[in-house]
Give the backbone structure.
Amino acid sequence: MVRALISGAGIAGAALAWQLAGRGVDVTVVEKSAGQRSSGNPVDVRGEALGLVDAMGGGDRLRAAATRVRWLVAVDRRGRRIAKLPASTAARGVESIEVPRAELVKILAEAASQRVRIVMDESISGIRPHADRVSVEFESGASDEFELVIGADGQHSRVRALAFGPERSFARRLGMFVATVESPEERLDPEEVTMLNVPGRSFTLHPSSGRPGAAFIFHSPAALEADRREWDRSVVADAYSGLAWRVPEFVERFMTAPDVYFDAVTKISLDSWSQGRVALLGDAASSVSLFGDGSTLALLGARTLADAIAEHPLDPAAAFARYEARHRALVMPKQRAVRSVSTLLVPRTALGLGVRNLALRGIQAFAALRPAAG
């Protein structure tokens, strides 16, 4: 029986573990967090990816945890409405469920744990490749050997750093930050996401599924710095200084909250997603960061990789080549669209913002006509 080690028990790792175990692979998953920790930020699960969650037995729970968002509302600096349009227009007619990321991870990890061994508070510290196996050392001091090692450990992947090289070799910073903070006591309309834009900055309030939160997405020269240790929360406070409406109160919450998300918008690109018996999956291989259906792509990539391994159980090179050829066809269009999507979401200039807002009003008018036309 083939033994596989997966680093990361998030969306990609948990889905792959379940898929591989169902194909007769002996799977171990290690997760560096002591408990399941994933942001409550909402993510979309679309199309075929929904069927994969259903197959794992998590479809009912996923739908029960879904947000009730129906509308995207754009407002000006004073909170006055500019446009209101159906949130579903973003899905382009494809069945889509929006759910807090943490809930999706929990559903997938619990399904995977019925089939595989998941070791929490553990991570890979060393990888030594051989022709027929991979020797792995762990932070705990333990060691083991596997036929396959898969890095599904996110944008800042440890497996990628150990087997492929430093992050700076593959990361392209887009000059933007994204920061989020939850505010469980907040009471927001559960059907509306509200977004304020000024040139170079956006502020969004999202009701989520009972744990509302705010997101700050903004352009900043500091986001081009390669060393994440130089980033400080004060960058957010400085960027949003002087804005009114509800921005100051949520900036304060972000500055004082014990658990926030704060990272640079980054595109991860590698010429190859595999080295010998080591391969990458999800954001570790091809992060499209904030703008690219990452959760749906992670689920689809997990199935594609599991299928390829099942087709070539004794030939990792062939399996990984098959997986990469198939999945790149889905990923590359998303990566190519990152720049244009970021421009629409966070226009840098007053002119660009005006054009974007005019487009939103046009979409609103068109959406209002559709019921009458039908």
Notes: The CA atoms of residues 233 and 255 lie 6 Å apart. The longest strand covers residues 171-182. The chain has a mean pLDDT of 90. The first helix runs from residue 11 to 21.
